[in-house]
Amino acid sequence: MADSWIEVCAKDAIDEEDVIRFDYGGKTYAIYRSPEDTFHATDGLCTHEKIHLADGLVMDDTIECPKHNGRFDYKTGEAVGAPVCINLKTYPVKVEGEAVFIKVA
Ligand code: FES
């Protein structure tokens, strides 16, 4: 099977404790850089009402949705704050050199 690692951006394009939106193959993803300088990826849309999570706020290990302030653990995808109750899908991430990659399939 073809290599499904997709280059997202340079490491420095994401600030620590921040998130960016990444669109690929008709889907949208959210790519996070934690306060510990690790990188993570989830589906880009909130499981509550399909709002872009990249417009939300990263606090420690959580992303807060900008619409109703639902929260997810972006490392595990777990829904941790109402009104969200459906977990987010997560994706493997790797850093090679200065670039961030996600595995989407
Ligand atoms: S749309 Fe995200 S919490 Fe409602």
Explain how this protein is built.
The protein is mainly β. It has a single domain, classed as Rieske [2Fe-2S] iron-sulphur domain (Rieske Iron-sulfur Protein, 3-layer Sandwich), CATH 2.102.10.10. 0% of the residues lie in helices and 46% in strands. It has no helices and 11 strands. Strands 2-3-4-9 form a 4-stranded antiparallel sheet, with no helix packed on it. A hairpin with a 5-residue loop joins strand 3 (27-33) and strand 4 (39-43). It is globular. The termini are close together. The mean pLDDT is 96. Residues 46, 48-49, 51, 65, 67-68, 70, 83-84 line the site of FE2/S2 (inorganic) cluster. Belongs to the bacterial ring-hydroxylating dioxygenase ferredoxin component family. Residues 5-102 form the Rieske domain. One of its GO terms (molecular function) is metal ion binding. It comes from Rhizobium grahamii.
Principal-axis shape: globular
Hetero groups in this structure are: FE2/S2 (inorganic) cluster
Say what oligomer this is. single chain
What fraction of residues sit in β-strands? over 45%
Widest β-sheet, arrangement of strands: 2-3-4-9
Average pLDDT works out at: 96
Helical content band = under 10%
> What's the end-to-end separation, in Å?
10 Å
**Helix run count:** 0
Structural class: mainly beta
Poorly predicted parts: none
Secondary-structure element series: EEEEEEEEEEE
CATH top level label: Mainly Beta
Cα Rg: 13 Å
CATH superfamily: Rieske [2Fe-2S] iron-sulphur domain
Brief rundown of the structure:
The protein is mostly beta strands.
